[in-house]
Amino acid sequence: MAATDSQKYRFSEAPVWELQRAYYEQLGLKAWNNDQVPQYITSNPMIGAAYAEMIFGFLQDRATQGATEETVTLVELGAGAGRLAYHVLHELALLKAYAGIALPPLRYVMTDLALKNVEGWRRHPALANFIDQGALDLATFDAERDTELKLLVSGETIAPGQLRQPLLIVANYFFDAIPQELIYIGEGLVYDCDVVVGQTEPAPGLTLSEQLRRMTLTYEHRRAPRFEDARYPYRDVIALYQRELEDSHVLFPEIGLRCLERLGQLSRAGFAMITADKGDHRLDNWRFAEPPQLVHHGSISLTANYHAIQHVFESRGAEALFTDHHYKNINVACILMLESPKQYVNTRLAYRKSVARFGPDDFFSLKLLADREIETLRLQQILAFWRLGGYDAEWFIQTAKRISSLLADANDEEKLDLRSGIHRMWTSFYVMPQRYDLALDAGLILFEMDMYEDAKPLLDASAQGDDDPVSTVYFCLAICSLELGQEDEARAYLQRALELEPDHEEALTLLAALG
């Protein structure tokens, strides 16, 4: 759709949303390369563990209610890079093994609008085991239209009314990135905010991201009687806004609400949703709100209206769990649209422990501080924060140089904890195109601690995966091989180092000594 200065659109039908869809469909998983579209805040090991605790609690609650035979289906909306799903599944497997109790089986379904993403997940080595075990399936899903799920791996179609267990939904950075209505409340009346698009025909050669960034929006108000019609399905919350708000622009998640209603139809027993977003659930945060500004990060996003979602489903008997304290970066909620939600004690306790007391938003706020203070931290403090974050690879990469500088004074216990942490990090690492080489940094730390048997496979993984390897890696591999009594391998590594750097003195000396 080409926009001109004279064209006006309802906000939910503006060309920006068409460009948004095209952006994800065109780039696929590349949209998240090197955080072009942010994913860390909603996809790190800490938030994965928090979600796993709530899902585990939900499975416990279903078991307590005697529903252990039927599979529980979990649908992740807009699963993006796939990193969150992996961390959740990884942590769930650990929780189940540790607890050793009877639970209903879980089928995790990753969904996205873009078929490229779904195909990318199917090829990702970290997800292969979960797919092979039947714990993970994949599907495309259009939040604006679809009424059923066609599973790519099993070939099964989940149609309305098919599920006997309640549906679990995960929606991270989802509601802020799909079309929303924009209304204006003034003097007790409701107006549609039509948008006038300032960008004319796209300039030749611009990427979709650049087109989105160049697009400017201005707004005009138009009376919107449909929102005041008694038959409008969300009339109650609109009426509340008319009573309570004045001179306020409100993003209204009509498409998001309809999406949840269609998903809820898949199960005969309701749904529970875990969601995190830039989203306000307090009515006060919408008072006197100015027109929204598009946030650009490859694609675009807005603020999600959690207040409307909470109000609509609580009026139908749900319990919505939000933190008592105000969020700063990401608002994490759990909505139980279930019969007798108070009976889901373990789910609610897990939310209290993993979100309300200290959750993903608190962790991210601390990490922003810790990132600035790395050069002042001691090794015990680095290790403590690493544990808090679930042995997060990003924290390790950020602190690797600092860790190296502290090793001379490290005691044996600290070194053993470092080795254990590196193992846990590596076995739970979800590979994505990033600027860093995790295997190299982890391998070098182990090498510096004389843990050659542990260092060698990581250094070898770095060498195999690097299109432009350096001689130092092969020299370190040669030392590891010698320490492990593998002289033939050491010679081969030294020869490879000398191919890359013929004047490498240490490699020349060592190779001569080996004869």
UniProtKB/TrEMBL annotation:
<feature type="repeat" description="TPR">
    <location>
        <begin position="471"/>
        <end position="504"/>
    </location>
</feature>
<protein>
    <submittedName>
        <fullName>SAM-dependent methyltransferase</fullName>
        <ecNumber>2.1.1.-</ecNumber>
    </submittedName>
</protein>
<keyword id="KW-0677">Repeat</keyword>
<keyword id="KW-0802">TPR repeat</keyword>
<dbReference type="InterPro" id="IPR011990">
    <property type="entry name" value="TPR-like_helical_dom_sf"/>
</dbReference>
<dbReference type="Pfam" id="PF07719">
    <property type="entry name" value="TPR_2"/>
</dbReference>
<keyword id="KW-0808">Transferase</keyword>
<dbReference type="GO" id="GO:0008168">
    <property type="term" value="F:methyltransferase activity"/>
</dbReference>
<dbReference type="InterPro" id="IPR029063">
    <property type="entry name" value="SAM-dependent_MTases_sf"/>
</dbReference>
<dbReference type="InterPro" id="IPR013105">
    <property type="entry name" value="TPR_2"/>
</dbReference>
<dbReference type="GO" id="GO:0032259">
    <property type="term" value="P:methylation"/>
</dbReference>
<dbReference type="InterPro" id="IPR019734">
    <property type="entry name" value="TPR_rpt"/>
</dbReference>
<dbReference type="InterPro" id="IPR038375">
    <property type="entry name" value="NDUFAF7_sf"/>
</dbReference>
<keyword id="KW-0489">Methyltransferase</keyword>
